[in-house]
Design goal:
Order of helices and strands: HHHHEHEHEHEEHEHEHEHEHEHEE
Distance between the termini: 53 Å
CATH superfamily of the largest domain: Response regulator
CATH architecture of the largest domain: 3-Layer(aba) Sandwich
Largest sheet: 6 strands, parallel
Number of domains: 3
Radius of gyration: 23 Å
Shape: elongated
Number of helices: 13
Helix content: 40-55%
CATH class of the largest domain: Alpha Beta
Structural class: alpha/beta
Length: about 325
């Protein structure tokens, strides 16, 4: 994809001059401006429509369920956006298309499982660049910044097996790439270690705390309890722990529980989990979007590492 360096070389001017002209921040001569815009069009370089109109509003589209999950991401986005002079708008999927117009926003950051890929591509086709945090999408105006779920979940399961766990149940979230990658790492690691996992020990959740409560209730009705429940996110794990303790089970003595995300409340409930650097993820998302808007960025996918936090909800910590 051509960049401002290519335009500068063809036009015989500096990179800063090209960037300023394309983003209407320069008093260059009309002849120079026309030359730069003509070369940009010839090379296929696209200036976001919103930026041409001096729009400096970024929209963050999130799902409408567990707000605790989004706190650090929001802090990271807002810290970078405000420092660069951009305003910041938050919406859910129901309102996303209403706000995602070139007249209203210059770019979007998305972390909403309820917003379909076709909707995101429709917004990108309007000339609005998107940073997506929950999936990978092939589109020339969409950049993905995603967590390396597989490696982190594999590290967690390997540590639990080393601690002596052998009978597992798994509580998945909605059918997203996060759930699929975490479950694949779980199954692959058990298979590598020669541990049998039955499909009946897989429970379906929806990321919410109440689905963790429901899974715990079903587990306690089964003939044989697992030694540990692996949850695809922290909110479901917290719900499961609450239900187990309400019914007199000890965590981790009677059953262990793990999550994924390391939201704030997990630190106070002593939940063993995978810590995702969400503040940094939000910060990087805003930085990537601003770089794209200012002609310095790219749309290459970025994968962020995560690490296990061993706490008292598993025997691995004891």
């Amino acid at each position: 994809m051509p960049g401002i360096r290519d335009i500068a070389q063809r036009a015989g001017v500096s990179i800063s001059t090209v960037s300023n002209v394309l983003h209407h921040k320069n008093s260059a001569s009309e002849e120079t401006k026309e030359k730069i815009f003509a070369i940009a069009e010839e090379l296929g370089y696209e200036v976001p429509v919103a930026r041409e109109r001096n729009n400096r509003t970024i929209i963050f589209n999130l799902s409408d369920f567990d707000t605790l999950y989004y706190l650090n991401i929001l802090h990271g986005i807002s810290d970078y956006a405000y420092a660069k002079g951009y305003s910041f708008l938050i919406c859910t999927g129901d309102n996303f298309l209403h706000f995602a117009e070139p007249e209203m926003v210059c770019g979007c950051i998305v972390n909403d499982v309820n917003t379909d890929n076709s909707v995101l591509k429709k917004v990108a086709d309007k000339g609005i660049p998107l940073i997506v945090l929950d999936r990978e999408i092939e589109h020339r105006r969409i950049k993905s910044i995603v967590v390396n779920n597989y490696a982190a979940e594999k590290q967690l399961i390997e540590g639990l097996i080393e601690a002596g766990y052998s009978r597992f149940s798994f509580l998945g979230g909605l059918n997203t790439s996060d759930t699929r990658e975490r479950y694949a790492a779980f199954r692959d690691t058990l298979r590598e270690k020669g541990i049998i996992f039955h499909r009946n020990d897989y429970y379906e959740g929806d990321w919410r705390e109440k689905s963790g409560v429901q899974a715990a209730r079903l587990l306690m009705l089964s003939e044989e309890m697992p030694e540990i429940l692996i949850c695809a996110n922290d909110m479901m794990a917290i719900g499961a722990i609450r239900k187990f303790r309400e019914d007199g089970l000890r965590v981790p003595e009677d059953i262990g529980v793990t999550g994924f995300d390391d939201i704030i409340i997990s630190r106070y409930t002593e939940l063993t989990t995978v810590a995702v650097p969400d503040y940094e993820r939000g910060f990087l998302a805003a930085q990537a979007l601003v770089d794209i808007l200012e002609g310095k960025g790219d749309f290459d996918t970025v994968r962020i590492g995560a690490r296990v936090k061993w706490r008292k909800s598993t025997k691995a910590f004891l």
